[in-house]
Design a protein that fits this description.
Order of helices and strands: HHHHHHHHEEEHHHHHHHHEEH
Number of helices: 17
Helix content: 40-55%
Distance between the termini: 28 Å
Structural class: mainly alpha
Largest sheet: 3 strands, antiparallel
Shape: globular
CATH superfamily of the largest domain: Intergrase catalytic core
CATH class of the largest domain: Mainly Alpha
Strand content: under 5%
Oligomer: single chain
Strand order of the largest sheet: 1-2-3
């Protein structure tokens, strides 16, 4: 096995790993006791005590910093100065705001920032800082329901899986990550969080820590498990620098992946296989769900696999799967079921053109093995 990638990784390990940029000061006014900035700090501490995840707290902090900065520019520094009219003005500001590319903020982004503001003012009312909640009647934007675009076909997924150089140690690691993503449909952050103890080889399952600290167990298909075992036996011991490191997938520095670096690596491999395709880890997640649905998996099983809290989120894949619609159309539409159909007055009837029956869908690449224990049927990656 070649070690070109591994040799580069060892060079990286000899360097001082980047510690990242320290959080820059938010520039908010905390000199005034009880100011919005001071109340924000207390609110974020309360969220931590409540058990909210660090990611949720950071998202709320970013949204509130932008809001308080906007208020201070208008001379508003205290919670009592914020009225419903002020909040409506901020909502209009978000709607009118343009990104660097000249586009409006996405509805989801606007909702996230306004949700952070509503959470702060609800908490202020509970703490008796305010008598009335100015955000109580605030109407959030309506988020458009969007179908997953550019869903990968099975052939396109196979092309992506062939991108890593499996004769190189890092190529084996990359192939294992791709196989796990496609087999389980887990999110990027969930893949980055995986630890050694999360892999259960005998049961052929993976323990996943999802959004909001919610955990679930998902099956590993045989190909994914085989590549994962090869990575754990041949590659990970060479990348690991510290015996106490528990992250499953390691970078060239010998540490676990950040979500940004992991997403960039997966996106690069997808682009290498399909230069015109835009997207990253979520493409393999969408492909996993869509291909399972096309092979007959129940939508509730897919919901459990993907970790969706609401069935409506999973049901969107029923609208993406055109193959399933085509099968039902061929089986039920009269024009597709009849062997003959009317033509004109001269011939009366004409035979339908001889055409081969549509081929049966091939079995899912990850259908065998550990899938059966989760589904009770074939078809789960």
């Amino acid at each position: 096995m070649h070690r070109s990638g591994y040799e580069r990784a060892k060079l990286l390990q000899g360097l001082e790993p980047g510690r990242g940029r320290s959080a820059s000061p938010d520039g908010l006014d905390r000199l005034l006791t009880g100011s919005l900035a001071c109340q924000m700090d207390s609110y974020l501490k309360w969220l931590a005590v409540k058990g909210q995840s660090p990611r949720t707290i950071e998202t709320r902090r970013r949204g509130l910093v932008l809001f308080i900065r906007w208020c201070e520019e208008s001379g508003l520094a205290l919670p009592v100065q914020i009225s419903r009219t002020v909040l409506q003005g901020y909502q209009f500001h978000l709607w009118d705001h343009r990104t660097r590319s000249g586009r409006h903020l996405a509805a989801g982004t606007q909702i996230g920032r306004l949700t952070a503001v509503r959470g702060l003012f609800r908490w202020l009312c509970r703490q008796a800082v305010l008598d009335n909640d100015p955000s109580a009647l605030l109407d959030l934007p309506r988020e458009a329901r969007r179908l997953p675009a550019n869903t990968l076909s099975e052939a396109e997924v196979m092309a992506i899986l062939q991108v890593p150089d499996i004769h190189d140690l890092l190529g084996v690691r990359n192939r294992a990550m791709l196989e796990v993503l496609y087999s389980t449909g887990i999110r990027r952050i969930e893949l980055a969080r995986l630890e050694l103890c999360d892999v259960h080889r005998e049961r052929q399952t993976l323990y996943v820590l999802g959004k909001g600290g919610k955990d679930r167990v998902v099956p590993l298909g045989r190909p994914a498990l085989a590549w994962l075992e090869r990575y754990m036996q041949e590659v990970r011991p060479l990348l690991c620098m510290q015996p106490e490191e528990q992250a499953l997938f390691l970078t060239g520095y010998g540490h676990g992946f950040s979500t940004g670096s992991l997403g960039g690596l997966i996106k690069q491999m997808i682009h290498q296989a399909h230069p015109r395709r835009a997207g990253g880890c979520h493409l393999l997640r969408h492909a996993c769900a869509t291909h399972m649905l096309e092979h007959g998996a129940d939508v509730r099983v897919i919901q459990k696999l993907l970790g969706h809290a609401k069935l409506e989120t999973t049901q969107i894949y029923t609208e993406v799967s055109i193959k399933l619609l085509q099968q039902v159309h061929r089986r039920t539409h009269p024009a597709c079921r009849e062997k003959s159909f009317p033509d004109g007055p001269e011939t009366g009837k004409r035979q339908a053109p001889n055409a081969p029956d549509p081929p049966a869908l091939p079995s899912h690449p990850c259908a065998s093995g550990g899938a059966d224990q989760f589904l009770g049927q074939d078809g789960l990656p």
